[in-house]
Specification:
It contains 17 helices and 11 strands. The chain is α/β, with parallel strands linked by helices and 386 residues long. The strands form 2 sheets. It has a 6-stranded parallel beta sheet with strand order 5-4-9-8-7-6. A 5-stranded antiparallel beta sheet has the order 2-3-1-10-11. It is globular.
């Protein structure tokens, strides 16, 4: 059994789960696995994956996990935490098939339930793939120690974001331990709730692309960013205040980012596009709105390594608080090529009897656009994007 702990998942999945339950408990959705790297999966992979997914029905939140979440995730209300204690994964929500080396995985069901599948499914696919190929990780702790020390030398605040494409749980566990040991106060925590508990660090995360994609699909692309942010504030009242900008491009986001939201949210996250241009654009936005950029944060999280962190940090040059969310570079740098995979929301409806609407994402990087091609064009035309 690969996934052994209920909270072996990223914080943002739990935070958006609570928001869905509060505001959209009847919503019904579909997710699809996207194999960006066109990896060929070994024969019988679908059957092994099905066995692992079925095992997840046994997972339950422990008393220790509940105690940790209650103490460290102060933004979750008691009713939601009690719900998590009783939650059980339903493997029937997940469809898995394979033809030759092509793997197909989809999830369908009530959004408030199915939202938890994305991260553990990706972790399962990645770890199982390397298991079946017989790949052994190399130099895990040595590399993690070196990276931790170099991040400290750069004086870069950072968090570990590597659950989704990790080589294995064991590798991520060892990496988090070394990062915490050798980076001092510059290591701010991990997105993985279970590992945050195990290593007594902070669980890190806010809101995902799917939150904006849902609002765009049901309420229109012009109002998607505003509607999504206002809904988030309704639930969390200012907590979890890092706004994701690139669901429908960062330019579109800033054109609708109100003064109220800009003052309420702690900062923004750069997940695609040119990070240096993003920094300039963000600083300019705050200055134009008479907000001191030093009081705000940019979380850089797009395919980072040490050289990229150094380049960004030197360019930002203390003009705004910069911090870094680093994933695959930490948790899958073991001598094998990491998988390039995602699981994305594709269809949404307000209730089970309604008609599905296509959900799409228009990234600042063309290669990261996801969803129905026709709907992507409709979105671009609506927002005046080329």
């Amino acid at each position: 059994m690969i996934i052994k702990h209920f909270t072996d998942n990223d914080l943002y999945k739990f935070s958006v789960m609570m928001a869905i339950q509060k505001l959209y408990p009847w919503s019904y959705v579909k997710y699809e696995f996207i194999n960006r790297g066109n990896t060929e999966f070994p024969k019988g992979f679908d059957k092994r994956l099905r066995e692992e997914v079925n095992q997840m029905a046994k997972l339950k939140m422990t008393k220790a996990e509940k105690t940790f979440i209650t103490k460290r995730c102060y933004f979750f209300d008691p009713a939601f935490i009690d719900f998590l204690e009783g939650y059980q994964y339903d493997p029937s929500e997940v469809s898995i098939s394979q033809k030759d080396g092509v793997l197909n995985v989809s999830v369908e069901g009530y959004w408030y339930r199915t939202v938890l599948w994305e991260v553990p499914l990706m972790g399962l696919i990645s770890e199982l793939y390397f298991q079946m190929l017989g790949v052994e990780p190399k130099d895990i702790e040595t590399k993690a120690t070196d990276k931790a020390k170099r991040m400290s030398e750069l004086k870069a605040d950072y968090s570990e974001f590597g659950t989704r494409r990790r080589f294995s749980f064991d590798v991520q566990d060892k990496v988090v331990a070394k990062l915490k040991e050798h980076s001092g106060d510059f290591f701010k925590g991990t997105s993985n709730v279970y590992l945050a508990m195990k290593h007594n660090t902070t669980p890190i995360g806010t809101l995902p692309h799917e939150w904006f994609m849902y609002h765009g699909a049901l309420f229109g692309y012009r109002s998607a960013n505003t509607k999504a942010l206002e809904a988030w504030v309704d639930v969390f009242q200012g907590s979890l205040g890092i706004a994701l900008t690139d669901t429908y491009t960062t330019d579109s986001f800033f054109s609708s980012f109100s003064l109220k939201e800009a003052k309420l949210f702690d900062g923004v996250r750069c997940d695609s596009g040119d990070p240096l241009a993003f920094a300039d654009k963000t600083i300019c936005f705050y200055e134009e709105n008479r907000i001191d950029p030093i009081a705000k944060t940019i979380v850089f999280s797009d395919s980072l390594d040490l050289n990229e962190v150094k380049r960004i940090k030197q360019y930002v040059n203390n003009r705004i608080h910069d911090t870094y969310g680093i994933g695959t570079f930490f948790t899958n740098d073991v001598g094998a090529k990491p998988l390039n995979i995602v699981i994305k929301l594709t269809d949404v409806k307000s209730n089970i009897k309604a008609e599905y609407h296509k959900a799409v994402k228009i990234s600042d990087d063309l290669g990261k656009n996801t969803g129905d091609k026709k709907e992507i064009e409709i979105c671009k035309l609506t927002l005046g994007l080329e």
